[in-house]
Amino acid sequence: MAVVLIVDDDVRLSQMLKSFLEKEGFGVELAGNGREMWERLRTGSVDLIVLDWMLPGGQDGISLVRELRAKKGPPILMLSARGEDEDRIAGLENGVDDYLPKPFNARELLARLRALLRRQGQEEPMAQLRFGPFRLDMAARRLYANGQERELNPAEMELLMVFAQRPRRVLSRDTLLQILGGEDDGRFDRSIDVRVTRLRKIIEENPRQPRFLLTERGVGYRFEPTQTDS
């Protein structure tokens, strides 16, 4: 599954794009500045970067592009309110793979990301995920077991989508806290364990079925959609 890292200090725009792209089957990570971008890149695999030109923290998008290219980073689509030809050319000359001026249409952004994936020889993100007797329709956010829909509340579905978009990756409670958008306090941290327990009751209710949500003791959780050992 393709994972997109959105680097933009506009929280409202980033959250809107995250919701839109996840419905289209992408995994999405967020960063508000260059420091957070490097942290995300160190903790997981990223296939594409959507990078804003103007960023806080002393580094603009162009300087980050130069560093990413020096490290042979993933393809970059740059966003900018600077729509002049000179700015677009500067971005492309410094290693940007594509450039989209603000404001933009989300469907155009999606088409450009898919084109970058095809250019890299990668598949587009999955629309469905099968594991055991289950089929997760990631676009419609529906879970089916042996053809019958299973009811999940919004919190359970959100957690399942997070794991499905990051298969076989160990996700710490802190990481889950950031992705799910909760407040950094003990109550929410403990509620993640509660959510995992509830989700397990749904997807691991049959003891003869494989276990899909595995606990990495002292670290977090890992989703194994093809896990066969209990």
Jot down its keywords.
230 residues; 5-stranded parallel beta sheet; 2 domains; Arc Repressor Mutant, subunit A; Rossmann fold; 22% strand; alpha/beta; 8 helices
Estimate what percentage of residues fall within beta strands.
15-25%
Taking strands numbered 1, 2, ... along the chain, how are they ordered across the largest sheet?
2-1-3-4-5
- Outline the biggest β-sheet: 5 strands, parallel
Q: What is the number of strand segments? A: 12
The CATH superfamily label of the largest domain reads Response regulator
**N-to-C CA distance:** 25 Å
Name the helix and strand elements from N-terminus to C-terminus, one letter apiece: EHEHEHEHEHEEEEHEHHEE
Count of spatially separate domains: 2
Low-confidence sequence ranges? 183-188
**CATH domain topology of the largest domain:** Rossmann fold
Shape call: elongated
Count of alpha/pi helices: 8
* Quaternary structure classification: single chain
- The gyration radius over C-alpha positions equals 19 Å
Q: Helical percent range?
A: 40-55%
Average of the residue pLDDT scores: 82
Architecture of the largest domain in CATH?
Answer: 3-Layer(aba) Sandwich
Return the CATH class of the largest domain: Alpha Beta
Structural class of the helix and strand makeup? Answer: alpha/beta
Description:
This protein is of the alpha/beta class and 230 residues long. The chain has two domains: 3-119, Response regulator (Rossmann fold), CATH 3.40.50; 128-223, Orthogonal Bundle (Arc Repressor Mutant, subunit A), CATH 1.10.10. It is 40% helix and 22% strand. It contains eight helices and twelve strands. The protein has helices at 11-23, 34-43, 61-70, 85-93, 106-119, 154-164, 173-180, 186-203, and strands at residues 3-7, 27-31, 48-52, 76-80, 98-101, 128-131, 134-137, 142-145, 148-150, 170-172, 213-216, 220-223. The protein has a five-stranded parallel sheet with strand order 2-1-3-4-5, with helices on both faces. Strands 6-7-8-9 form a four-stranded antiparallel sheet, with no helix packed on it. It has a three-stranded antiparallel sheet with strand order 10-12-11. The model is unreliable at 183-188 (pLDDT under 50).
